[in-house]
Amino acid sequence: MNREALKRIIFDQHEVIRNAQVVPRRYSLDPQANYVITGLRRAGKSTLLYGVAQGLVESGVAWERIIYVNFEDERLVGFTSDDFQDILLAQSELSDERGYYFFDEIQIVANWEKFARRLADAGERVYITGSSATMLGRQVSSTLGGRYFTLHVTPYRFDEYLDARGQAHEGGALYATRDVGRISRHFDVFYQQGGFPESLHYASAREYVENVYQKVLLGDIAARYNVRNVDALRVLMKKVAETVRTDVSFSTLHNALKGIGYGISKDTVISYVGYAREAYLLFGITNATAKFVEREGSPKYYFSDNGLLNLFLFDRETALLENEIAVALYDRFGEGLHYAKSSRTGVDVDFYVPEAGLAVQVAYSIAGEAREREVGNLIRLARADDAIKRLVIVTKEEEEVLEQDGVRVEVVPAWRFLLGEHA
């Protein structure tokens, strides 16, 4: 590739970095390590790197040493692995000192991992981002051979959202009447609109999220995996959204599409859901009480951000509340997060983390019959598992402590749970 063109791209990116408003996030990067940073599109991966680059310049590193290349730049269409060497040559022409390399959405270029390994072996400092879980797949991991740390970036969590809004959420702010009222109002917006960082700057957050969703669906899924029936993919994502809060099998999803005229196979449904998970659109949790071979058969699926789920829903309140709690718990416990459901014991608990001894039910309200149902499910699980240390019911607004049959159940509003007092 023409190196002068590469230099123009690099200097243009310097202007973007200079002007970027970077809100501090909860991630800390070791300055001596190389990173592969993954996550949902528009979650804030690039902005995180802008902050790293700004910090380097503030510490005295010359701009000419900041080599930032976004591979979604239309000027790089047709870029191949053979062109990577030109980036190194361009850097050597810009500065006699070593560069700091930032590569955005590098997975677009086939065999990128071989170049990344070569840079690491040469002792270069490298930061890489991508919007696909395949970047951490077995083949790529084998090539990189432990030379890179991995970091997963998500849209704002509630505490970060409050930081971006300038709202205190620690110490006395969690109890002062005025602050609690403000935090609660911020949560009302957050759990409806989600936490995409840039959405805070738009008059219509929903329109922004819709654009992100279309980019993920058409670019990160349909184009990347050569999906032939995009309409079926769209409808499948809607059907998955309708199942949030319930376990669902691939057969159920396949039959739902078949019933409305989409003649795709069950294997195709399995592939499409897998693609959505690899693009970080969805994640799934399994039934901890099921036999090992049955756990993958009926997962519960959730969307990685409430703004995405809200695009599909008509009855929003409880589904959004549960999805937000799922996102927070999955962010903390990863594959250790499950649900618990057993026809034998009558247990039906939304979230269960065996290693942490934590069981969580989500209910918009526990007024009326809901109280007996939600408390009863937690108590039945606690009786079946002596290792459980904490039982929690997350609600929209209610807060109390219940004692029943010698078992303590905490009832907490979602905003307080998300801020870590009970999580």
From TrEMBL:
<keyword id="KW-0067">ATP-binding</keyword>
<feature type="domain" description="DUF4143">
    <location>
        <begin position="220"/>
        <end position="332"/>
    </location>
</feature>
<dbReference type="Pfam" id="PF13635">
    <property type="entry name" value="DUF4143"/>
</dbReference>
<dbReference type="InterPro" id="IPR025420">
    <property type="entry name" value="DUF4143"/>
</dbReference>
<dbReference type="InterPro" id="IPR027417">
    <property type="entry name" value="P-loop_NTPase"/>
</dbReference>
<dbReference type="GO" id="GO:0005524">
    <property type="term" value="F:ATP binding"/>
</dbReference>
<protein>
    <submittedName>
        <fullName>ATP-binding protein</fullName>
    </submittedName>
</protein>
<dbReference type="InterPro" id="IPR041682">
    <property type="entry name" value="AAA_14"/>
</dbReference>
<feature type="domain" description="AAA">
    <location>
        <begin position="35"/>
        <end position="162"/>
    </location>
</feature>
<dbReference type="Pfam" id="PF13173">
    <property type="entry name" value="AAA_14"/>
</dbReference>
<keyword id="KW-0547">Nucleotide-binding</keyword>
